[in-house]
Amino acid sequence: MPVIQSKNTSPAILSFFTALILAIFITLFTLFLRQPWYIDLIAFALTFIVAYTIYFYTLQYFIYRKIKLIYKFIYQTKATKREEFFYQNILPQKSIDEVRKDVERWAIEKRDEIEILQKNEQFRKEFLMNLAHELRTPIFTVQGYVHTLLNGAIDDPAVNRKFLSNATKGIQRLVQLADDLDQISKLESGKIPIVQESFVIQELVKDVYEEMMLKARDRGIDMQVKKGTEAAITVYADKQKVKQVVVNLVENALKYGNEGGTITTGFYQMDGGRIYIEVSDDGPGIAEHHLSRIFERFYRADRSRSREIGGTGLGLAIVKHIIEAHGQTITVRSKVGVGSSFGFTLDKGKS
Q1: CA 205, 207, 211, 213: dihedral to nearest 10 degrees?
Q2: Rounded to the nearest 5 degrees, what angle is found at the Cα of 71, between the Cα atoms of 68 and 74?
Q3: How many CB atoms are located within 10 Å of the residue 15 CB?
Q4: Do residues 175 and 183 touch, judged by C-beta distance below 8 A?
Q5: Of the candidates 292, 286, 291, 300, which has an alpha carbon nearest to the alpha carbon of residue 126?
Q6: What is the DSSP code (8-state) at residue 243?
C-alpha cells in the first residue's frame, strides 16, 4: 500500500490503517453470521479501537525506544531528569524522517572530524620525523668533533681550534632551531604581541636590501624595486616583524635564486584599504605539487640543496604566522624555470 510504503508514515497513521483493515475483515466475518446490524457495528468499533490502541502504543514504544537508543549513541551530552521529562512530555516527538536527518548530519560531522584527525595525525608524524632529521645533523656533527677532540685531537694545535669552531657552528644551529620553534609556538599562542605603527614600506625594504648587499654581491644578484611602484606607501603593522618577513623572503631568494639573477619587490594598493607586497625572483622555481605545503614547518621542496645551503626549515612557517597574526594572508606563485613570487597583505597606514 502507498501509505505503508511512504517514507513519512507515522506510527499513528500506520496503526489507523492496520486497525481499519482488521476491523473491516472482522465486520465482514460477522455479516456472514447474520447478526443484527448493531452487533456488526459494535464489532467494528471495538475491533478498531482495540487494534488501533495496541498497534499504536506497541509501535510507539518500540520505535521511540530505538530512537532513544540512537540518540544515546550519537549525542555526547546526558540529559537531566527535568530535561528528559520536558523532551518526553512537552516537546513533540521527532518523526522518523527527522531522526534520519539527525543521524545523517551526525555521520557527516563524524566523517569530517575523522578526516581532520587523520590529517593532524599525518602532520604530527611528519613534524616529528622532520624535527628528528633536523636535530640529527647538528647533534652528530658536534658529537663527532667532541669525541675526536677527547680522543687526542685536543692536544694537536693544528686541528683543535678548527674542530672546536666547527662544533660551535653545530651548536649555533641547534640554538637557532630552538629559537625558531619557540617563536612559532609563541606566535601560535598569541604570546608575542603585535605592536602596530605607520611606516613607509618601501623604506623598510630598502633597509633590508642594504643589509643583504654583500650576500647579493657574492652571487651577482641584483635587488630592485619594481618600476611603477616606487611611490611611498604607508602601511600599519608591526615594523620589526614585517622586517623579519621581508628579510626571510629576500634571504630565501638569495639562497635559492640563480647566480646573476634579479630580485624584485613590488608594492600595490588594493581595494578595502590593504597593501599587497610581493617579493619575486627569476630563480629555478618550485614545482606545483610543493606549493600547497611550502609554509609547513620543516617542509623543503629540494631537501638535498636545502641541506647544502643550511637553515632550520622554519623560516616560511614563521613568515606565515607573523602575517596571520596581523590578520592578513600570504600567498606563493611559482613555476619551474620561471621563478617564484611570495606576496602578503598589510593594512594601509596613515601618511
Answers
A1: 70
A2: 155
A3: 20
A4: no
A5: 300
A6: H
Q: How far apart are CA 334 and CA 316, in angstroms?
A: 15
Q: Cα(95)–Cα(64) distance, rounded to whole angstroms?
A: 9
Identify which of 254, 308, 309 has the alpha carbon closest to the alpha carbon of residue 283: 254
Q: What are the residue ranges of helices labelled H in 7-95?
A: 11-32, 37-74, 81-89
C-alpha cell at 171: 651548536
| Cα distance from N-terminal residue to C-terminal residue, the chain | 78
Among the listed residues 323, 299, 321, the one whose alpha carbon sits nearest the alpha carbon of residue 311 = 299
With H, G, I as helix, E, B as strand and everything else as coil, classify residue 196.
coil
- What's the mean per-residue pLDDT of the chain? 77
Helix (H, G, I), strand (E, B) or coil at 72: helix
Produce one character per residue of 154-186: b if its CB has 16 or more CB atoms within 10 Å, e if not.
Answer: eeeeeebeebeeebeebeebbeebeebbebbee
> How far apart are the C-alpha atoms of 208 and 145, rounded to whole Å?
36
Q: What is the pLDDT of residues 32-86, one digit of tens each?
A: 666 676 666 776 777 777 777 766 666 665 666 666 666 666 565 555 555 455 4
Yes or no: say if 349 and 198 are a contact pair by the CB < 8 Å rule: yes
Q: Per DSSP, what are the bridge partners of residue 67?
A: none
Contact yes or no for 265/226 (Cβ under 8 A) = yes
192-233 pLDDT, tens per residue?
788 899 999 999 999 999 999 999 999 999 999 999 999 999
- Looking at the DSSP assignment, which residues form a beta bridge with residue 265? 225, 279
Q: What is the CA radius of gyration of the chain?
A: 37
Contact in structure between 61 and 11 (CB atoms under 8 Å): no
CA 206-231-215 angle, to 5 degrees, is: 20
What is the length of the chain?
Answer: 351
Which residues make Cβ contacts (< 8 Å) with residue 250, sequence separation at least 6? 208, 209, 212, 223, 263, 265, 279
Q: Which residues, in sequence order, are bridge partners of residue 279?
A: 265, 342
Which amino acid is located at 17 in the chain?
F
What would the pLDDT profile of 233-272 be if each residue is shown by its tens digit? 999 999 999 999 999 999 999 988 888 999 999 999 988 7
